[in-house]
């Protein structure tokens, strides 16, 4: 279990890293091992708050790293929406999650934290989930205490499994870790189902069961976040999603309250799809994409992001 404590606001923050620099991915065919990424994530958490934008796919993951973010989040909602084209209601499989993670791990070098939903089953399934995703290059996961099929954490109608059942799952997941640095975060949805006090009580049990940190889902005010950090002195993750129950707070505000990880799960997906919708409407109306060109990523920008150098054809002979 990671020690508690507040981040040093004077410490280097990942959002202070230079952006837009050429950041090559791993050498061809040489993925950065999960254990190395996990150790790096632990180091960065110890230095201060870590902002983790959610990648939509491997190309957007390259962009997140190139723009200076020191870790990437892989959202279960994005996996369902953008990869499967379905709602986030537990329809995706561990195999699909593994493949999605492996594509992203193969072209990036920074730590990856992945949403593993309810662990794809009971304790044995949760253990297999850890082994599978760790082998795919993931640095850590979070498991949630909802019943299956789960729902988005900011919707009504969620149902919880008994705390004892979640503890069994966490204990099995913790025992399955290949590296002690692999981060196991327990998400509790109790706040929106039975109340704040139950969320705090479950957090204590989950830490005792083997979780490295806690993700309190759908807290509803800055005051609640601050209170939770006082009541649960552990590694804490804040979900700064849009259109949900949580107010918009900055990463620095979360850091001041004691949160070390801040995820932005669907931010890029929402921005990208809104831009795509506007582009499609323009194309349909104007019968041409010419007015959109200045808003596009250029061919050269794309090649630079991919690390692709176009060589002239060999005209010898």
Write the layout of secondary structure elements.
Layout: H1 34-47, E1 50-53, H2 58-66, E2 72-74, H3 76-84, H4 94-105, E3 112-115, H5 123-135, E4 140-144, H6 163-175, E5 183-188, H7 196-209, E6 213-216, H8 222-231, E7 235-239, H9 251-257, E8 261-264, H10 267-286, H11 299-306
Parallel strand pairs: 1-8, 2-3, 3-4, 4-5, 5-6, 6-7, 7-8
Helix pairs in contact: 2-4, 5-6, 6-7
Structure description:
This protein has 317 residues and is an alpha/beta fold. The protein has two domains: 14-267, TIM Barrel (Alpha-Beta Barrel), CATH 3.20.20; 275-306, no CATH class. Helices cover 41% and strands 11% of the residues. It contains eleven helices and eight strands. The protein has helices spanning 34-47, 58-66, 76-84, 94-105, 123-135, 163-175, 196-209, 222-231, 251-257, 267-286, 299-306, and strands spanning 50-53, 72-74, 112-115, 140-144, 183-188, 213-216, 235-239, 261-264. Strand 7, helix 9 (251-257) and strand 8 form a beta-alpha-beta unit. The longest helix is centred in the last third of the chain and has 20 residues, at 267-286. The relative contact order is 0.14. The model is unreliable at 3-12 (pLDDT under 50).
| CATH architecture label of the largest domain | Alpha-Beta Barrel
- Indicate the structural class: alpha/beta
The end-to-end span amounts to 65 Å
CATH class of the largest domain: Alpha Beta
Could you say which overall geometry the principal axes of the C-alpha atoms support? globular
As for the number of domains, it is 2
Low-confidence stretches: 3-12
What is CATH's topology name of the largest domain?
TIM Barrel
State which percent range the strand residues make up.
5-15%
- Radius of gyration based on Cα positions: 20 Å
């Amino acid at each position: 279990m990671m020690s508690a404590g507040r981040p040093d606001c004077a410490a280097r923050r990942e959002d202070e890293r230079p952006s837009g620099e050429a950041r090559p991915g791993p050498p061809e065919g040489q993925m950065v091992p999960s254990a190395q990424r996990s150790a790096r994530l632990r180091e960065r958490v110890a230095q201060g708050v870590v902002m983790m934008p959610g990648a939509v796919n491997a190309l957007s993951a390259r962009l997140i790293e190139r723009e200076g973010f020191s870790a990437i989040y892989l959202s279960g909602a994005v996996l369902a929406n953008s990869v499967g084209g379905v709602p986030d209601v537990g329809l995706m499989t561990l195999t699909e999650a593994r493949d999605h993670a492996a594509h992203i791990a193969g072209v990036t070098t920074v730590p990856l934290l992945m949403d593993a939903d309810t662990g794809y089953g009971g304790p044995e399934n949760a253990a297999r989930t850890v082994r599978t995703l760790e082998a795919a290059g993931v640095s850590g996961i979070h498991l949630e205490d909802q019943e299956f099929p789960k729902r988005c954490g900011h919707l009504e109608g969620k149902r919880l499994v008994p705390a004892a059942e979640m503890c069994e799952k966490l204990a099995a997941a913790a025992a399955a870790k290949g590296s002690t640095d692999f981060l196991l975060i327990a998400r509790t949805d109790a706040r929106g189902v039975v109340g704040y006090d139950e969320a705090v009580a479950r957090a204590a049990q989950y830490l005792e069961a083997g979780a490295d940190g806690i993700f309190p889902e759908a807290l509803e005010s800055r005051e609640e976040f601050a209170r939770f950090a006082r009541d649960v002195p552990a590694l804490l993750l804040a979900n700064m999603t849009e259109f949900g129950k949580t107010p918009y707070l900055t990463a620095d505000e979360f850091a001041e309250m004691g949160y070390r990880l801040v995820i932005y799960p669907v931010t890029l997906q929402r921005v990208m799809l809104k831009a795509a919708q506007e582009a499609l409407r323009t194309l349909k109306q104007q019968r041409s994409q010419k007015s959109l060109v200045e808003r596009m990523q250029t061919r050269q920008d794309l090649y630079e992001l991919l690390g692709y150098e176009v060589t002239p054809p060999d005209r010898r002979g």
